[in-house]
Each structure stands twice: as C-alpha cells, then as structure tokens.
Task: structure prediction
Amino acid sequence: MIQNHALKSFKALLFLVAGLLLTAFNPVKASSGAENNGEEKFNIGDMIFHHISDAHEWHFWDGATLYLPVILHTPDRGLEVMSFHHFHNETSSYDRYHYNHGHFTVIGDESIHPIDLSITKNVASLLLSAVILLLVFFTVAKGYGRSLVPSGLRGFMEPLVLFVRDDIARANIGHGADKFVPYLLTVFFFIWVNNLLGLIPGGANLTGNIAVTLVLSLLTLLITLFSAKKYYWSHIFTPPGVPLWLYPIMVPVEIIGIFTKPFSLMIRLFANITAGHIIILSLLGLIFIFKSFAVGPVSVAFSVFMNCLELLVAFLQAYVFTLLSAMYIGGAVEEHHH
Amino acid sequence: MELLNPGIGLIFWQTATFLVLVFILGKFAWKPILKAVQDREKSIESAIRQAEEARKEMASVKADNDRLLAEARSQGEVILQEARKNAEAYLAKEKAKAEETAHRMIEDANKKLEADRLALRAEMKNMVAELSVDIAEKLLRQQLADKSAQQKLASTLLDDIKLN
Result:
C-alpha cells in the first residue's frame, strides 16, 4: 500500500516535470503554432481519451485497422451481428442503426434502446488474454505430468503460483484458504496479463476500464458475502465495544463499509492503469504539441522510463488487487477467537 | 464522464470470460498444478522425515555396535582375567607341588645324610674303639714289658683295692 502511494506521488512528480518542460518549450510551441494555423489543431485531450477508451475497431496504424463485429440486441429483432466496417465514422448509419461516438440508436424509433454486446477492442483483448492464460497454464499444468521438478515456463510461473497461494491466500485467509486459491490465482494472473497487454503499443486499456474492474470487484464482494461467517455479520450488526445508542450510526457505517471495500478495489485498479496510460500518452503527446524534434528524445526517454515503471505497476496492481481480495475474504471467514 | 460509465457489453463479456477462466483454469490448470506442488511438498517432507529416521536408525545401530563392542571388550577382559587367574593359580599350585617335592627330596636327602652320618659315626666309633684298644694294647705291652713295671701296676691295683 505504501509502495502504491509512493508510486502515485512519483507520478504526480512526473506530471510536474512534464508541466515545467511544457513552459520551458513554450516559445517553440508559439512559433510552430503560428506557422500551422491552417491545419486541424492537435487536441491532446481527445487523443488520450480516444486511446484509453473502448472502440469498435482495432486500429494498429493508419491503413491497418481491424473492424470488429458489432452485436446488438433489440427486443423486436433479437440478436444482430454486423461488421463495424459499415460504420467506421464517428457518426454514421447502417441498416436501421445510427452510430454516434460509441453509441448505437435505432433510426426513427427512439423508444428502442439496443443493448450493445459488440466484440469491442477491449472484448477482443479480453478474449486474447483468456487464450494466453489458457495456453500458458495448460502448458504449465501439463509439465507436471512429466516431472515434479519445474523448469522453463514452469520454473517462472511456479514461484508466482506459490506466492499467491502462500503469501497472499494462506497468509491472509488462514484456515480454509485453499478453497479460494483458484479464484485468487485467476484474478492475479488475469489482471497481470491484461495490464501487460495494455502496455503494448496499440493494446487495449482493459484493466483501466471501469466495467472490467467492476466485475472483478463484484466477484470479490460476492465471494466475501457468501463465504462470510457468523462472526463477520455479528461484527456488522452488533459492533463490539459500541454503546447501544450509537448503533443507528455505526450499523449503517458498517453496512456501507461492506461496499466501500470492493468499490476501492474497482477504483484503484481502474485509476492506476488509466493514469499510467494517460501519463505515457501525455509524454508522447508533447511531441505533437511542440511539433519539434528537440522534444522527441526527451519525450521518448520519459515515456520509456514510465513504461518500465508501468511494468512494475502492472505486477503491483495485480498483487494489490489479489492481496486485498484475500484480506476481505479473510476478514469474512474469520472465526470468533478469544 | 464516459470513462466512469461501465458499458453493459464489456460487463457481459468480462463476466462470462472471467467465470469461464476461473472454471477452466481451476479445473485444468490450478488443480493439477497445486496438486503436483502439494505432492512434491509432501514427498520432500517425507524424504526429509525418512532421512531423519535413517539418521536416527544409524545412530541407534552405531550405539548398538558400540555397546556390543564394549560388551565384547569387557567380556574379553573378564576371560583374560580369568585365564590369568587360572594360570596364576595353576602356577602357584605347580610351584607349591614342586616346592613340596623339592622339600621332600631335601628332607629325604637330609634323612639319608643323617643316617649315613650316624652310620659313619658308629663305624668311626667302632674303628676308634678298635684303634684305641690296639693303641692301649700296644701301650700296655710297651709299659708292661719289664717286671718292675708289672709289679708296680700290681701294687697300684692292690692299693686301689685296699682303699675300696
């Protein structure tokens, strides 16, 4: 947690440095801005927002764009699948659907709200990560059939698996921890792999998407609630050491506390990963703002450094999410000891 | 803000994919991996325990050996001591026997010597007596060769008789 905090403040410091650089190079910007008055103005906010948001196509570079399937569900027509190729503009129409900045509406009938189940860039990345996880861990698992001594990929993965089992699950849940190890292992490797996939240029910002972190933290919440013992509930509805007249305040606070924990999980992962992407994109965006070769090496150096830092953050956030999930579960399954 | 608004599509796909992952990985990856690791941990544990047991057994065997060796040594000592004692006793007995024999032989010799000495003495006595008689005869013959001497003797003898 402390490390996490330190990273956050480090990120803030980098922002400050970037800001200082911005003012230092201001004259360059002013002159170049004056020369290119006729061109479309580069909007760094739009660029960054575009990169960290979901999309219906996977844009690798100009000329290499993968149009992904659009899947819409409407009460009258059921499921419909079409290629996003037909839309491809920020605002365009195909069939009876109108597309406007990520949203589909039915032309002529505003009462129908299509449910968008499209394979977006994030979903494609999600499926890719699932395939990677399955391949990696099937290979690892198969290796144990041959020999109990790990080597190669197993040698790399086994310490991590044992780390999650021993230092995260068993250390924080205690008795009966092994029941939750499969979930925690999946969470850990899922977040880690997707964090890393997100760092690849052109990759999706999956773990920096609130829907993904919402689902993950909801699962932790559900596991916590369904495995909670009597002691956990008695702690919430009859807080120990609290006088009776404080119950009307304390019990609602405790109940809110049940939800703030997974909420913090959701926000933490989302914010950390999105922030990392924003920093790297901002640093690279400086080149386009200044339109100067002089900024290039500085920007690139900073973003390479940030990328290295993000590699650490990718692991750290996977660890933190898993660790805190284990702690919440541990708190729920704790038995009364005196 | 768009970023903070979770999309239903991604929620659906994420839930489906993640649950499938938890299920499949749990069944075909985590279970065999964790089982293999646990088996290995157990085998290592049992190997360590066996080694410990073997070590203990070795120690006990060594102690046994030492004990047996010590026993054998002490037994040997006892046997040796007994043999020495027997030998000493035998020696002493033999010595006593020899001494007795020697003693007896010496005694016998002494007795014989004594007897010889007595016999010799008796013989010598006889010889001395004979010689004395001879000498006395010769002396008497010499002293009583003339008449006067015979008379003198006779008179002395007579005197003695008178005195009595």
